Amino acid sequence: MDFSSKLLENAVNEMSQLPGIGKRTALRLVLHMLKQPQEQTSQLAAALEKMRNEINFCKNCHNISDLTLCEICANPGRNEKQVCVVEDIRDVMAIENTSQYRGHYHVLGGKISPMDGIGPGDLNIPSLVDKVSNGQVEELIFALSSTMEGDTTNFYIYKQIEGFNVLSTTIARGISVGDELEYADEVTLGRSILNRIPFETSLKS
Ligand SMILES: [Zn+2]
């Protein structure tokens, strides 16, 4: 792409670093900004910078939160003995949208993926094992997407907590293999959460 302006080229290059944004889309977005009032771009830049600098992770569940304890963990009406293991905030949002779950979450921050160089040590697994070994958890619900990475991660965690007195379940799969949780419709996902099965059963199938 030949640019008549270095400033324009820099902006397009930065924008095209985002996932799913190619150079053409980046150019379209940048040109759109040029047509909008200048404050709009300033506000966008300020919001991004503030978010990046000030974002917090809940000290209990590792979900993204503005406070040290997220709204879910801070809510006394939720069952802290029930912990749903998910990959990231998108899964929390998807499950919350179903209004079928009143427990807590544990956000791993990813899935074990040797191909991408992500090992167990890169994820929030030790704090989960701690919670279980301290007897803080009665039921651990595995809700990672049923991809190979999701299954590997579930199994790794399951092995870590197997010896402790905790019920391990997994959400029933109305969701077909390879589907990401966030794309499942609310009714299907809600039903999967209600119809949990023992984790051991999922290993045999
Ligand atoms: Zn939390």
Describe, in plain words, how this protein is organized in 3D:
It contains nine helices and seven strands, in the order αααββαβαβαβαβαβα. With 205 residues, the protein is of the alpha/beta class. The chain has two domains: 49 residues, Helicase, Ruva Protein, domain 3 (Orthogonal Bundle), CATH 1.10.8; 146 residues, 3-Layer(aba) Sandwich (Dna Topoisomerase Vi A Subunit, Chain: A, domain 2). It has a five-stranded mixed β-sheet with strand order 4-3-5-6-7. It has a two-stranded antiparallel ribbon with strand order 1-2. The longest helix has 17 residues. It is elongated. The chain starts with 5 loop residues before the first helix and ends with a helix. The site of zinc ion has 8 residues, from helix 4. Zinc ion binds next to helix 4.
List keywords for this structure.
205 residues, alpha/beta, Helicase, Ruva Protein, domain 3, Dna Topoisomerase Vi A Subunit, Chain: A, domain 2, 2 domains, two-stranded antiparallel sheet, binds zinc ion
Helicity, in percent? 40-55%
Topology as H/E string?
Answer: HHHEEHEHEHEHEHEH
- Please report the first level of CATH classification, the CATH class of the largest domain: Alpha Beta
Q: Biggest sheet: strands side by side, in what order? A: 4-3-5-6-7
Shape type: elongated
Q: What count of helical segments does DSSP give?
A: 9
How confident overall, as mean pLDDT?
90
Overall structural class, as computed from helix and strand content, comes to alpha/beta
Task: List the domain count as a whole number.
Answer: 2
Small molecules held by this entry:
zinc ion
Strand content: 5-15%
> What Rg, in angstroms, do the CA atoms define?
21 Å
CATH architecture name of the largest domain: 3-Layer(aba) Sandwich
Report the strand count.
7
Q: Summarize the biggest pleated sheet.
A: 5 strands, mixed
Low-confidence stretches: none
